[in-house]
Fold this protein.
Amino acid sequence: MELETSRMEEAEEIRERYELSMERIRAMKEETAVSAPFYDYFQKTADFILEADRLASDIREGRQARMTLEELQKQNRRLYEDIAGEAYENSYASPVYAVRLLGEGYGQILSFLYTEIRGMAAWAAEQKYGDLAMAAELFIEVYNAFEGEVPAEKSLRQIIYWYISDYCDVFVPGRIREQLDPSLSFARDIICGADLSDPRYLYRFGEYILGNELGISRYLAGLPQEEIDAMASTFTEGYRIGFVNAGIDLGKKKTVNIRYSLGFERIVRAAVEQFEKMGLQSIIYREARHSVNRRPQGNPGYGSTPPSKQYLFDHKEDSALYLDRKLVERKLSVLHSAYEEYKALAAVHAGPAVMEIFGERPFLPKSCREALKLDEKQQELSVFYNSEAGQLANRYIPGDERSFTIIAWPIPEIGENFKEIFGEIVKINNLDYRLYQQIQQKLIDALDQGAYVRVKGAGNNRTDMKVQLWSRNDPEKETIFENCVADVNIPVGEVFTSPKLTGTEGTLHVSEVYLNELKYLDLELTFRDGRIASYTCANFEDEEENKSFIRNNVLFNHETLPLGEFAIGTNTMAYMVAKKYDIGARLPILIAEKMGPHFAVGDTCFSWSEDNPTFNPDGKRIIAKDNECSILRREDVSKAYFNCHTDITIPYDELGSIRVVRPDGSEIPLIENGRFVLPGTEELNRPFEEEQENRAE
């Protein structure tokens, strides 16, 4: 009773703080205490805050539930229109625009502030008045600093720094709880309780809603329940089988995290029900909005297609405004305390089940000189923090006790053939894994004989890679490649290994590739003893910009990364579907990696679970799970992992050959001129042959 009373008093105090903040911000609209050019910035930012306040009020008082679809759309546009599409270029969220109007230094700081405040739309939807109050109070503090004379840039940086530092013990534990506590059920309640045939439910999330979200929701609303259940079952069964294949007892787990994009609620609802039958409650949390919780290498959670990808790109390194050693140490301390507080929930968490989307227009980011960038020391701190945070997560949710699954679906933005493409992807996600299992075993039997593999490009592709393989002590019982069928990594179609780094060398080149939603032109990586020795691309005219782009978004600020995986994709059907509809540039890596050989830089596929016995369907134990970096976990775990894994695929039409080279120097051809030539794998060429036959007709 005392605890409940205390919580009520705390909630009342927060509401009072929030209401006082709103009164002050409304008063700002009538004031002229701030001089140009900053006056316009504060007026427009105040307009957004008051719009978020109206959303919070409409939800709290039940008005939003009575709004028509048109009224909801207008409300949503008011919240997001200034950062949507080309409008972003004239928004204070854009560092370019902010610096042009407000000046160097001030522009970056105030653009950061506006970006942080934009999270209020999501917090209003969830009625998180604590988050709303803290953001509003930060805005007021900065505004007060501008009353009268323009403050020193240093004093503004201090305000931001102490906001991040002081509230670190609120934002970080809150994020950990969101990831582990099923009682935080905001999204799940909407998904499982709303009328999903009425698209108005989408606006309850507080996210940007446009054609993709409305289009996929309406499309799924028209499908029979058995089709929805079947799609969800492919997803949830893949998750379950992943635990079986890894020898992990799923019965000890109680929660699963579903990550997805808005519009797919019918499939997610079916998945929630299917997971419940496995004894798992679904946790569905939003992408992080607080800067201190966002990660440059990915921002997991549910969300919508972004109003502007350039906006996200420009703010990837906003932590440059405040990151220092003291803050990193404080954040790690708070993170450790949070895991301790929620360790019982962590112990029963099974891992993520991820539904990706694809089909968005290809994004080639523009260089932004004005955007905040981590300096060299901050890059080192970022790498250090990610390493320490990864170790903490693994201590409380051990890698050998969790699993995952990933599946991908197209969205309407992919084009007028959306429905046909969606149907093709359903087929691809449900290919006969037994057939692929048999064919892939033929490849593995050949690969197991090799000392190394030689991969060469064709035409203008400059790839020439020598991939050193581990040797087997007991060929009758051991294998070095995993036979990957449709479980954790849907769809079916690859064999992969962790290469030996010593002796792995050469050039990896791809004319065009999309990695982590960013486009790279003429990406080229050079390896020496399995580690990246040099890198370049042709995205920008300035070579230093090209290198910086790769270092930030592929190496994630590491000096180098090892080759964590070598794989051969076998899903030629997916490849030909991509060619038929000309969607190769829009496919996610999840599917693209099955459409040719791929090389992953960063951690191995077995990171944090190397010692967990893994077997192929033929009963052989997979022994190539470590490399010279990951094995260092036995001495110093901080040297073993890099907390990233990026797959780079060479498409079949850029592929010359893949040959297994035995210890005696003899060769086994697997692929020649982009076609499978190993006896027993000819079936994989059928989609190519059918396409040629269709052309002839």
Notes: DSSP finds 22 helices and 19 strands in the chain. Residues 186-401 form one domain. The chain has a mean pLDDT of 94. The chain has three domains: 2-151, 186-401, 431-696.
